[in-house]
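can u pls check wat happens w/ adenosine-5'-triphosphate
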Amino acid sequence: MFELENVSYAYDENAPALDGVSLRIPKGSAVALVGANGSGKTTLLRLLNGLVLPTRGEYRFDGVRVDQLFCGSVDDEIAFGPRQLDLSEEECRRRVDGSLKLLGIEKLRFRPPYATSGGEKRKIAFASVLSLNPDALVMDEPLAGLDAQSQSLVVDLLKALRAAHKTLVFATHNERLVEEIADVRATLEFGKLVATDRLR
Ligand SMILES: Nc1ncnc2c1ncn2[C@@H]1O[C@H](COP(=O)(O)OP(=O)(O)OP(=O)(O)O)[C@@H](O)[C@H]1O
Ligand SMILES: [Mg+2]
């Protein structure tokens, strides 16, 4: 589903945030990205989401080379999934409106997703999930910034998604989350993928 071939990414020229990463994530697998602060997890997830493009190497999603930026606004972000499903634009609009309303975030509609608070980002992410019943979810620290109750809600949601054979990719420092959810632990060090361990 996700294929990275010798992918590098640098925010500035002298320090690569990702350095020659090759990783294949088949449909239905659950991959945890782990590694120290600054090792490249978030950058890798941003790449998978098409928010940044490789400076070297190739990224393919379902065999299609990703060379386009997308998800400019919260509205676009939530609409992205339904649009992938080849639903009519009218049906996409209906789903986006419905999930914005459900999460009470209508007022965020035209904001860029990165210009929102941590809690708001979570709500946007949930709205995206609800709008599309996706095949794959890419998540950066899915439990960060959530209170205990919301954390167990998210853990239960992830378990349900895994049981439904969704492809899950998430970065986390939470070892319990790795053990409860992931079937592969992929470890980054200084932008390099140094290990992929099968957990189950
Ligand atoms: N916007 C940015 N501009 C310049 N450099 C950046 C930017 N974001 C990240 N970096 C650098 O890229 C490298 C990888 O950062 P990244 O955010 O991917 O790490 P991470 O593994 O997600 O870390 P953490 O566990 O702290 O979330 C680091 O050296 C970081 O300093
Ligand atoms: Mg990070």
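The chain has one domain: 2-198.
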